[in-house]
Write a structure and sequence with these properties.
- The protein is built from three helices and six strands.
- The chain has a six-stranded mixed beta sheet, with helices on one face.
- It is about 20% helix and about 20% strand.
- Helix 2 packs across helix 3.
- By secondary structure, the chain is an alpha+beta fold.
């Protein structure tokens, strides 16, 4: 079953940000974590300052133009989100960006070169990234249950 799409900028425009940019990580976290866009933007840029340079990386993460995977994982873990992989190296695609293949609830989903918020089977983004239900999901973040 393909997913419903709902246009959502995560509060970017309301926070005073303008224009087009590659801020999908910032947007997806703001939407799914139900936190202000400007707060996530600042937190991700702060986290980028603690990145260790890696071979082949030209520049640091930026909340505006892209955040490296290790930085995403560290930041989301720090606010109580857990990574659930759906694909292993060489395993092929097992889960697609479809309502019947992902759990319900608040999710931050990683697909090729993009991160998107999914809430109870509905994609919340500035465009529809589902590719009619054929887009492969690498994994998703979900909130850790409160103990």
């Amino acid at each position: 079953m393909t997913m419903t799409y709902q246009h959502d900028d995560g509060g970017r425009a309301a926070a005073g940000f303008r224009g087009q940019t590659g801020d999908c990580v910032t947007r997806a976290i703001a939407i799914a974590a139900e936190l202000p866009y400007a707060e996530i933007y600042a937190a991700l840029n702060e986290a980028a300052l603690r990145e260790r340079p890696r071979a082949g990386r030209r520049k640091r993460s930026s909340a505006r133009t892209g955040v490296q995977i290790p930085t995403i994982r560290r930041y989301l873990a720090s606010i109580g989100w857990r990574w659930v992989p759906t694909m292993q190296i060489g395993s092929g695609c097992k889960v697609h960006l479809r309502a019947d293949e992902l759990p319900s609830g608040l999710l931050i989903v990683s697909v090729s070169r993009h991160v998107v918020a999914v809430i109870d089977g509905v994609v919340h983004d500035t465009h529809d990234p589902t590719r009619d239900g054929t887009r492969c999901v690498y994994g998703y973040y979900t909130r850790e249950p409160v103990r």
